[in-house]
Amino acid sequence: MAENKPRDFTCTDCGILGCYRRDKELPSTCLTKRYGAENERVLNLYRDGGQTAQIARAAAEIEGQYYGKLTRVEEIIAFAKKIGARKIGIATCIGLIEEAKTFMRVLQAKGLEGYSVLCKVGAVDKTEIGIPPELKVRSDCHEAICNPVLQADILNAQNTELNVIIGLCVGHDALFIKYSQAPVTTLITKDRLLGHNPAAALYTSGFYYKRLLEKGE
Predict the structure, then answer these.
(1) pTM given for the model
(2) Domain 71-217 sits in CATH 3.40.50.1860
(3) pLDDT single digits (tens) 110-137
(4) How is the chain split into domains, by residue range?
(5) Which of 77, 102, 159, 186 has the highest local Cβ count within 10 Å?
């Protein structure tokens, strides 16, 4: 029987967090120490003047300028303007279409152009990609798949310069990010039970959602 190898040290194992201010001695197992050479390669990306450098600097500058002062909606507007993005794609869930409409109005008010694509674009029934009827939300009617790849393709064709996710499902968001040509940020992360505040499950894992810490599936 194979022995269980010890798990590698990761950042959630650390009680020091000295990497932020460098005011404490980093442990010998710290990822900053282990990946020093890789960090130098990454730093060159942040310094070389390309898109990665532009995004890295814009994000850091917004954090410094507006820390605790702007909502995420406002931060996205500020970020878009800092990187020179004027055409903003919106990949939205059908369940958050009203929020997407409001965000579209915000973009227009701030002098930006928005282009939105709903998750159900294409109107393809789930059975057409091999989902059995009993695994639909409702098995007795046409129920369209979420179509994140087509959402990305449409926004790519529109030459959007920054794409914003509004409530795409777990997994569908991953596919959208994979196929989007423009950089992607998230405005709303879907959580149907918790009013789109998934962190609430972690905050209450000691009581209401203690099942999260129970062993097993």
Answers:
(1) 0.94
(2) yes
(3) 999 999 999 999 999 999 999 999 999 9
(4) 29-69, 71-217
(5) 77
